[in-house]
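#data-curation
PF: Archiving a pair of folding outputs for the training set. Convention for this channel: one message per protein, sequence first, structure tokens after, nothing in between. First:
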Amino acid sequence: MIQTLKFIYLHPFNEGRRFKAILDFLIWQIKSRIWNKYYLYQFTESSKLMVKSGMTGATGNIYTGLHEFADMGVFRFIFYEK
């Protein structure tokens, strides 16, 4: 759990919102254990993310905005360059 909190705290997208990101993590951990169901999260302006406890990559996006920052940043650069 300490490693996860460190990852969330140091993630580039959480700069300026580190406390909120940690709070999101704690809320998700409590909520997903009490009610084991799917939740719908606004991911971008035009997309939503349906997540459930155990979906590590998807829940990482809830905490950080973009779980695999370096990999997806390259993807975005290659495919969405304007």
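PF: Second:
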Amino acid sequence: MEQRVTELESRLAHQERMIEDMNEVLVAQRETVERLERELDAVRGYLRDRRGQDSTFE
């Protein structure tokens, strides 16, 4: 019985580590996505401005 409890505790500890690791990955990915969204917005703004400038010379 004690061996079974020890095994379950070990599995639980492993699962908790895995969850923490996955959470760190998710946080990093979220930060990357947010950065990429900001960059995409900047590019869209740049292109919109360029289109506006180009049309004034037609």
